[in-house]
Amino acid sequence: MIPRLDCTTPGANQRPRFPVVTNRIDIAKKAPKVYRAMIALDAAAREGLDEQLAELVRIRASQLNHCAYCLNMHTVDARKGGETEARIYLLNAWEEAGDLYTAKERAALRLTEAVTVLSSHEYVSDEVYEQAAEHFGEEELAQLIALIFTINAWNRIAVSTRKVPDIR
Asked: Is the dihedral of CA 68, 73, 76, 77 positive or negative?
C-alpha cells in the first residue's frame, strides 16, 4: 500500500507542507539478491580507502542526493570514527571552508560532486579527474570512484523507498 501524501496548498499565512515521509518497500526483504549484491559491492568499494575520507565522500553524496537516511547513518559513523563536528557541519560548504579539509579530501569531494551530479551540461571533467589522480594512485582512484557510485546507488534506494532515518 502506498502511503497517503499530505501536501496542501498553503494559505497566506501557512508554510507549504511536504509529503509525510514513510517507508515504502523494504528492498532487503522484497529483492534480497539485489540487496546482498549491494552489500558485497559496498564492501568491495571501500577496500583500501581511508575510512575517514570515505565517510566524508558518503556524507557529501548523500547531501547532494537529499538522502536523510544515509546522511544520518554516515554522520553517526563519521563521529564514531573520530570526525569532528566542524568538519561534518561544514561539509556542505567545503569549498568555502579554507584548509579545514586536506587537498586530497578536497579532490575527493570535487570528484564526488562531479560523479553524483551528472547532467547534460555537467560531467566529470578532465580537470576534476586529473586533480583526483594527483592525490590518488590508480588503484585507490578506482576504489574511490567505486565508493562514489556505490553511495549514489544506496542513496537512490533509500530516497526512492523513502527509508526513514534511524535517529539515535
From this structure: negative
Q: Where are the alpha helices (DSSP H) in 47-84?
A: 51-64, 68-80
Is residue 120 within 8 Å of 28, Cβ to Cβ? no
Q: Which residue has the cell 583526483?
A: 132
pLDDT for res 8: 43
**pLDDT digit string (tens) for 101-141?**
999 999 999 999 999 998 867 789 999 999 999 999 999 99
Q: For cell 560523479, what's the residue?
A: 115
pLDDT band at 1 (very low <50, low <70, confident <90, very high): very low
How many angstroms separate the CA atoms of 60 and 110, rounded?
10
Give this prediction's pTM.
0.85
Residue 51 and residue 154: Cα distance in Å, rounded? 17
Cα separation, 112 vs 107, in Å, equals 9
